[in-house]
Amino acid sequence: MKKSLFQILIMLAMLTAVSCKQASTNENTLLETEMGPTADHADFNKKVETIRAFFQAHADEDIEAQEAMLADTLKFSPPNYNGNKWVGKEEFLAAIKGYHDNFENIRYHEGVVTADNGTVGGFYSGSVYPKETAETKANVIRTYGTWTATHAESGQEMGVKFFNLSTFNEDGKIATLSDYFDLSSLVPKETEN
Hints:
Residues 1-23 form the signal peptide. By secondary structure, the protein is an alpha+beta fold.
């Protein structure tokens, strides 16, 4: 009796293990089916490298290099509230020229600064939530970081936390840019004489 009870317990344990493994596999298959194909990391990395090069060209004040990375039909949503109107490439480049004319030592610091003064990821794309709009493609690149510079006239050091959404056209050029940051952080503080 002990032997048959022991055999039954072993059989139950094996059935449970197989059932759990099958359930786990089924859950993964279900998730992949719901999410669609796996992520295209090469596409994401290519877009991230373009954004990094674009930001470096800004730091180098190389507006021609920046312009070459932009689609002719660029749409730009500036950080200031303008009734949520998108503007074109010409207006975007004028804003960039304004930064180049008014700031020196422009630098981009990639990533989000954490409470322990560490830094975590600066580029993200895709999502799993909400389920209705879950996406594995790198259609919109979310960029997090900090820009720093020296105000040319006052010599004051400036900095601004930065968030950006970018999309690309089929030629690999930046098609849309939407910036979010506090413009007042770029205004020199009055100094007492």
